[in-house]
Specification:
The complex is a heterodimer of chains A (204) and B (214).
Chain A: E1 9-19, E2 22-33, E3 37-41, H1 48-56, E4 63-69, E5 72-75, H2 87-98, H3 105-115, H4 131-145, E6 149-153, H5 161-176, E7 180-184, E8 194-198
Parallel strand pairs in A: 3-7, 3-8, 5-6, 6-7
Antiparallel strand pairs in A: 1-2, 1-4
Chain B: H1 2-13, H2 21-38, H3 42-62, H4 70-74, H5 77-83, H6 88-118, H7 122-150, H8 156-167, H9 169-181, H10 184-213
Helix pairs in contact in B: 1-6, 2-3, 2-6, 3-6, 3-7, 3-9, 6-7, 6-10, 7-8, 7-9, 7-10, 9-10
The chains are: A alpha/beta (204), B mainly alpha (214).
Chain lengths: 204, 214
Amino acid sequence: MQGASGTYSVTATDLACRRGDRVLFAGLSFTLHGTEALQVAGTNGIGKSSLLRIVAGLAPAFEGGCTVQGTIGLLDEKPALDPALPLGRALAFWQALDCPALEGGAADTAAQLERLGLSGLLDVPVRYLSTGQKKRAAFARLLSQKAAIWLLDEPLNGLDGQAVELAETLTAEHCAAGGIALVASHQAFRMPNLRTLELSRYAA
Amino acid sequence: MTLLRRDLARLLLGGRGGGALLPVLFFLSVAMLYPFAVGPDAPLLAKTGGGVIWVAALLAAILPLDRLVEPDIEQGLFDQWALRGISEELVIAVRVLAHWISFGPPLMLAALPAAALLGLDGQTVRVVEIGLLAGTPGLAALGVTVAALTSGLRGGAALAGLLVIPMAVPVLIFGAGSLGTGGESGLALTAAASLVLIAIAPFAGGAAVRASRG
């Protein structure tokens, strides 16, 4: 992540989301700048994931729009790692796409993997990993992407107590370094300066 | 490019899916079974053998359809590519190329022993090989397009096979038809049908992937 923290932003104006013939939420507006974090809270099925996919540009908004300044990294329930490949090679694929000319980053990456407790799992095919291990692997993918804006969809699912803390710390560090985090979670997410958006208030 | 390398590694070696070996073995076994089924009538075999090779090639191309596109949608890879500005069209185009490399040239090689089994003469083998070279890229493009269209559907794999067969008919007619005439016009038409399929594939496939996102 380079550049001043003021250059990144996410602006949603008057967003509405429809799934099938049901309008999930409407009139939702918010603005996030660098170093800010927002938790989207609400019960299952209220549209948290849909909101994140609209912000990511992967789904169209029913009404309103969303403008994003900065690169987006998405972490959802799909790890996007080849199930048949060993973890190390599955991660290396994304690394080759994200920063092809990575020379000094190797030590950096190794440190990240060590921190996520994945160093010993690099030879294990992704399909043999547990839910929590896959989630941590997805975090490794997200970290190496070095995106300015993190969209985290239920990032704590499947993680144990220690890993939950780690995920919260990583997100806090990301924001402290000037990034933006948009977290959709029904669980408590503990990090400094986290604002909360109750999606139920916008339910149609 | 990284994408092509990954696609090739996945489709050629393929781990659990069997990789490129499975369609080739399937192709050879069809060519081997055919003489057993019709009996040792050399003139008949030589006359119909070219057509059998074509049908076997088409069926072999259908085998890997279910793992061409669907796993990547399911695992969220297409979402991650989209976030990085890599369009679905590009991914599909690369996949067509990788799919062709993983079954086209191996089939052309396997067609040689198959031709020997069926007792084809040199001229026919030549036409079959050129026809396969012209036709298999089209079959690859068609396969990837249909795989993208049927991904996410229940029973998509079976449906994909059913959809590919009628759409592959032009390639088959011109490809196998050129055997009878031995002419270049049939081969040229095979190549033309192939080119049309290749030109459509990235856009149709890309749109299908986006639509499946919902």
